[in-house]
Amino acid sequence: MTNQVHRNGSTKPHFILVPLMAQGHMIPMVDMARLLADRGATVSFITTPVNAARIESVVRGVEASGLPIRFVELEFPCAEAGLPEGCENVDLIITRPELQLRFYEGLSLLRKPLESYLRGIELGGAAVMISDSCHYWTMDVAREFSLRRMIFHGPSCFYIVCSLIISQQNIYEDGLGTSVVPGLPHRIEVTRAQAPGSWFYWPGWMHLKAKVDESESAADGVVINTFLELEPEYVDLYRGAMGEKAVLPIGTLSLYNKDAEIKSTRGNKAAVDERRLAGWLDAKEPGSVLYVSFGSLVLQGPSQLIEIGRALESSGRPFVWVLKGAEASRPELVEWMSEGGFAERTEGRGLVIAGWAPQVAILSHPSVGGFVTHCGWNSTLEAITASVPMVTWPHIADQFLNEKLVVEVLRVGVSLGVKVPTFYIEGEDVVGVERERVEKAVLSLMDGGEEGERRRERAREYGVKARMAMEEGGSSYENITTLTQILGHKVE
């Protein structure tokens, strides 16, 4: 790979992107890779064989477009990490708690393969590494190759700021009760169980947290998939906390996907015929359809799924309900849907997708007027960008704080009132939220009267701001320019 001259006269920047192997982290970084390449950079996207297979259609599209992106498949030594062969993504271990720490510790085993790749290419004079915050070991790789290194944060800036404050002030050191997060422009209360990074306090995880914190403090800056106009006070707070280090909101990254085929295959191959889906949505009234999906990690037991289905049925609303393959195949649910009459009673009004759904395409369709979501940041941001208000049902990780951003700060959501994190373990079958609560929240969101209309209007306003941020001259557009033209200089 030879050096190329960039528009500003410097060496053309080369970005090495190292995402966490989880769909919610990989998807926005794939978007980032294509966006940076489209803006004149060369990109090496680091992945593994199992994860590369999931984005095969995207890889083919990149190859056809001629964008200067190389998808680099590094072997992930599962056996050495103490994992079953092929466990190369977080969603493959989510129901196996005993494997989760091994997975995150095992990420550092990618260091030698990555170093080998970097030695075999010509980096030129303007190389930048952008790695997920969990890849603490990239700090040493960047030093060895004299690279600038940026941290990529998948969650919201609101979440990041709350994380910093809670960690720095040891809010939960002496108790497990509810606390107000100090120093914020809004009154935000969280419990220890809902707190950001609470999993780091599990037995055996603290050493990993220390390494992640050290790696982040040594980084040259941070790239975030959000936009300034969505959470300006929290971007300002985070910039203040980071001092002279760059904090660059460059989202909404999903807006880079304007092609219908790319939208439908973003993240994985869709499990539904896109023409059938589009035709079904086209036949519905604008704003009438409820979309229900819980992302790539959250799993529900059969009894909870049946409660959701009963709520959707009794709501009377048209709906698209996404089930993971493992959920859709559970005998109890299959029997209830078929022999129990759910499929027959909701025929024409409900569409169930078993597997990966083209979420961006669905949310951006005019007939979709609401979203029942787990509050993962990608899903939350995609809904905001599409101007779709939400019913919030957080389960784990950053989702509880994302809910507070949606409901209490932005005021574009209705909360189900879930207070305790939920981790599905294979074989367990509990109901955490009854059908009546789900139906009530759905009707509040989709009908909602005067307050509902104000909620929808706020959602429309944020959608406009999101699109403006990504257009030429917008805040995110300019931050991407900063990445490609200012930070693309070799560390001396």
SSE diagram, text form:
Elements (H helix, E strand, L loop, with lengths): L13 E5 L4 H16 L3 E6 L1 H6 L1 H10 L3 E5 L4 H4 L15 H10 L4 H9 L7 E6 L5 H7 L3 E6 L3 H12 L9 E3 L8 E3 L14 H12 L3 E4 L7 H11 L3 E4 L10 H6 L8 H9 L6 E5 L8 H14 L3 E5 L1 H4 L2 H8 L3 H4 L4 E5 L4 H5 L4 E6 L3 H9 L4 E3 L6 H11 L3 E3 L19 H12 L2 H22 L4 H11 L7
Parallel strand pairs: 1-2, 1-4, 2-3, 4-5, 5-8, 8-9, 10-11, 10-13, 11-12, 13-14, 14-15
Antiparallel strand pairs: 6-7
Helix pairs in contact: 8-10, 13-15, 13-20
Beta-strand level of the residues, as a percent range?
5-15%
Q: Any idea of the CATH class of the largest domain? A: Alpha Beta
Task: Provide the gyration radius in Å.
Answer: 22 Å
Could you state the CATH homologous superfamily of the largest domain? Glycogen Phosphorylase B
CATH third-level topology of the largest domain? Rossmann fold
Tell me about the largest β-sheet: 7 strands, parallel
**Total strands:** 15
Question: Helix/strand/pairing class, anyone?
Answer: alpha/beta
Strand order of the largest sheet: 3-2-1-4-5-8-9
Global mean pLDDT = 87
The amount of helix comes to 40-55%
CATH architecture label of the largest domain: 3-Layer(aba) Sandwich
Domain Glycosyltransferase N-terminal: 16-251
EC number: 2.4.1.-
GO molecular function, one term: UDP-glucosyltransferase activity
Protein name: Glycosyltransferase
